[in-house]
Glycoside hydrolase family 38 N-terminal domain-containing protein (Anopheles culicifacies), 332 residues
Amino acid sequence: MENRNKIFLLLVVQWFLVGIGSNPTGSKQSFISQHATQCGYEGCPIVKENMLNVHLVAHTHDDVGWLKTVDQYYYGSEFTPSMEGRSSIQKAGVQYILDSVIQELLKDSTRRFIFVESAFMHKWYMEQSEEMQDIVKTLVHEGRLEFIGGAWSMNDEASVHYQSVIDQFTWGLRFLNDTFGECGRPRAGWQIDPFGHSREQGSLFVQMGYDGLFQGRLDFQDKSNRIAKQTMEMMWKTSDSLEGSELFTSGLYYIYAPPPGFCFDVLCNDDPIIDGPYSKDNNVKEKVDLFLDTVHNMSKTFLTNNIILTMGEDFHYQDANMWFKNLDKLIR
């Protein structure tokens, strides 16, 4: 087999997590538990040596207030008042994202999803029935729904005080711990949208017990230099005064978007994977060739045989079936 075809696709939530085997606080067993999966490292797909392991991370980035209020984002209000009346700002409804994702995860035990902003998870979770809450707890315990970052929101790193950062992490992490136990504890930072990154933020992640950090928006000159020198990943010394302050840190290749040609959301314009054997529009070979070229070009910028593709964007997965159906085809 040619080297370009030696690729192993992994649909994962996040592989950089410590394995924890205990049950979440208050978790009840449900019909889903028969799949014998678990949270943490032990629940991760096994990577293959001498192959390029491509980690497909299904995710959504949901601003806790930006162009709309928190409630407008959560409930999906598309219009905001303006001088001319009501104007359309952004199509985004986080409640529909979580409704849809949970149903798609239940269809296939191999599917994974990460969620970041605890403010929205808290709001949605408190609206659910006890039965649905138990289902969500089981998905978390099985490692199929995983929390990354885990703060109340994804904070800015340039103009904030460290006290505010600690407070909003405390608020989000306390909710996750009280609700889901140890399996709800994030072990990787996910700062994909702040416009710039500070050393103190990295230091806080180390002091809070995180094992790694993923960053999205790097300075374009810094990113170009890192790509050329294969230094997109590093052990970041986040403090000169604290012992053990090194933090595994990785810059994401496409900021946090999917690669061109592989955006499979209602908000995207890329073609789906058309695999009908008799369809004149069948594009499987075209998609596969584009994917192989994409990941092999990416692999040249990293030192290891493991690369990450972020399969999601702002407020994606309002119709999660579109994403997961096409990801399943891509993996096959």
Observations:
- The domain at 53-331 is CATH 3.20.110.10 (7-stranded beta/alpha barrel).
- Residues 187 and 209 are 7 Å apart (CA to CA).
- Residues 162-180 form the longest helix (19 residues).
